[in-house]
């Protein structure tokens, strides 16, 4: 039986809950990933932040004007609109991860069967499951991409 330890990605890119959304966005872009485990100062998993979380927070807080659905700034944009968009992004960038992250985290341990991880992702409609040690420290992560890669490499 294959276990979480067999396909998890480790070491894992994570972010501290006290960092800003700008730092999270930079990590997501730099590593071409869609989400990160969020840890506290003791490396305990306390949440997950994804591009979807950031977009949802932006909408809920009306970070950008509702007329700006495409985020496209044309040469014909009003100066006030451009300033509003710039101010919205600056405010978003300064926001603390703890205020944006998903706090309900589903985790696995090293010995969790891969089939259970996959079922958890499907049931909870999540894209990543942090793998934690017995004392809840981050040890790795399993993403949907990891599961797809594993299935693709498995021979019949």
Tell me what you see in this structure.
- There is one protein chain.
- The strands form 2 sheets. A 3-stranded mixed sheet has the order 1-2-3. A 3-stranded mixed sheet has the order 4-5-6.
- 40% of the residues lie in helices and 17% in strands.
- The chain is globular.
- The protein has 156 residues and is α/β, with parallel strands linked by helices.
- It is built from 6 helices and 6 strands.
- The protein has a single domain (4-153), classed as CBS-domain.
Proportion of strand residues: 15-25%
CATH hierarchy: architecture: Roll
How would you characterize the largest beta sheet? 3 strands, mixed
Q: What spatial form do the alpha-carbon principal axes imply?
A: globular
- Contiguous helical run count: 6
CATH topology: CBS-domain
Residue-averaged pLDDT, rounded?
Answer: 85
Task: Supply the CATH superfamily name.
Answer: CBS-domain
How does the SSE layout of this entry go?
Blueprint: H1 4-7, E1 15-16, H2 21-31, E2 35-39, E3 45-50, H3 51-60, H4 79-94, E4 108-109, H5 114-124, E5 128-132, E6 138-143, H6 144-153
Parallel strand pairs: 1-2, 4-5
Antiparallel strand pairs: 2-3, 5-6
